[in-house]
Amino acid sequence: MADLAGAAPELNPAALTPTASELNPVVLRRRLMAWYRGQARTLPWRGTSDSYHIWVSEIMLQQTRVAAVIDHYNEFVRRFPTLVSLALAAEEDVLAAWSGLGYYRRARMLHKAAQFIVLEREGRLPASSAELRTLPGIGEYTAAAIASIAFGEAVAVVDGNVERVILRLTGRADEATAAARAFVRAQAQALVPHARLLSSNLDAQFVSGPISKTRSAGVWDASERIALAASADPTAPAGGDRSHPPASNVAGDHNQAMMELGATVCLPRAPLCLQCPVYALCRTRGEHVTPKRPPQRSLPVACLLDLRKRGTATEVLLERRPADASLMPSMYELPVLPQEAVEGREPVLRLRHSITNTNYYVQVFAPLRLEPSGLTKRSRGEAHPLRQAIPKRSRELHWTRITRLAGLPLTGLARKILHRLHVMDKPKIDLLE
Ligand code: SF4
Predict the structure, then answer these.
(1) Which domains does the chain have, with CATH numbers?
(2) What's phi and psi for 253, nearest 5 deg?
(3) Residue 104 CB neighbour total at 10 angstroms
(4) Residues near 326 by Cβ (< 8 Å), separated by ≥ 6?
(5) Does residue 49 line the site of ligand 1, with CB under 6 A?
(6) Which strand (E) or helix (H) includes residue 299?
(7) How far, in Å, is the centroid of ligand 1 from the Cα of 142?
(8) Model confidence pLDDT, tens digit, residues 225-267
(9) CA pair distance 55, 34, nearest whole angstrom
(10) pLDDT value at position 192?
């Protein structure tokens, strides 16, 4: 690999003591933030100082790719623009807005937490990571992210991206031990700037939005100097101003920059070291061994897409999962068919649907012939055997008007199938009953 700043230091495990000075926090922060100012992606939640919106984005980003979150986030905050509007909404409407994002427990917990905040906290979201952790659905990582980004608390956010960056910078092996986790947390925390005091002049220059678009290098340098002065003061409190969002949020910006570096440059399998702003400080420079991920499982799934006409309305047969199901309770999906019921039949759609370590190879069967523009003809009597093949479980079957689908809590797979077959958006269906 080309050498941009001298040869990489030789790895010496004995020398890798967990001290912040190894990483030279001042230099690392300066280089990291200079890069972040110019390279940060413009994301909708980076343009807000609304703590409720930041909270929503952090919950959506749990175990979910940024690209998958953007549209859902925009739609969710359009439907529920304030914490109070979310608290007052019906759970079914919240799940419908979440549909397609997966991990629906997050939506339920978000809804419950909003109701708790309205009832017990006069509608104010807690401003410290310690208090945030008392809310449903908020663990250590999410509490730190909200507290630092929305309220300026100088607490490190350690997600998978940050962990990888720290391990590679320090040359530590990737070990699933409590000591290794503690090492990463300590290193990440030692890097977080503690600035929170700015002059009113500087305050005026800080506005909401991605740092790359709104903040000048001069302002950052000034805030960094104040940050260093504040961090040198052992009596300085760890948190930000709890009454107001911080005018200068160096802690939140630093955390976002670390996550951005891991997400866009220090990639899991092939880090882009030649583009890395902290290359000169890194002990591994692409030589860090990342453990292999467990292999993906593959599972076949067969679904039934059954449609009928009732007057001028078109209805689709949906199955509602039990309220006590461990996965996606009370969500609507297309009825699942046993594999033996579809043997020898040609599906109308094949697709892959991935959830964590499992690839579901989904085949959709319909008693209709498909034309490019949608479903057109059904062979009389063919629906019945397929419908009869739906296992008799405790689930409920519902004929549902397709005009209602957008407002229903559909599973992500059901939504994907109904979109792909143009049932939700442009139904062109001529059915024979
Ligand atoms: Fe080190 Fe390369 Fe990761 Fe930068 S991208 S932190 S140089 S491994």
Answers:
(1) 13-195+248-281 (1.10.340.30), 297-425 (3.90.79.10)
(2) -65, -40
(3) 20
(4) none
(5) no
(6) strand 297-304
(7) 25
(8) 434 433 333 333 333 333 344 446 899 999 999 999 999 999 9
(9) 26
(10) 94
User: Is the CB of 284 inside a 6 Å radius of any atom of ligand 1?
Assistant: yes
Q: Which long-range contacts (CB under 8 A, 24 or more apart) does 166-170 make?
A: 167/288, 168/266, 168/271, 168/282, 168/283, 168/284, 168/288, 169/23, 169/28, 169/278, 169/281, 169/282, 169/283, 169/284, 170/16, 170/18, 170/22, 170/23, 170/283
User: pTM of this prediction?
Assistant: 0.69
Residues tagged active-site: 58
**Nearest 5°: CA angle at 252, between 53 and 64?**
55
Q: Is the CB of 265 under 6 A from ligand 1?
A: yes
Percent of the chain past pLDDT 90, that is, above it, reads: 52
CB-based contact 52:80 (threshold 8 Å): no
Average the pLDDT over each of 152-161, 213-222, 277-286, 298-307 and give the range with the smallest value.
Answer: 213-222
For residue 206, which of 249, 243, 241 has the smallest C-alpha distance?
249
Question: Which of 244, 246, 249, 200 lies closest to 224 in space, CA to CA?
Answer: 249
Q: How many CA atoms lie less than 13 Å away from 398 in the CB half-sphere?
A: 17
Among residues 263, 261, 266, 258, the alpha carbon closest in space to that of 288 is found at 266
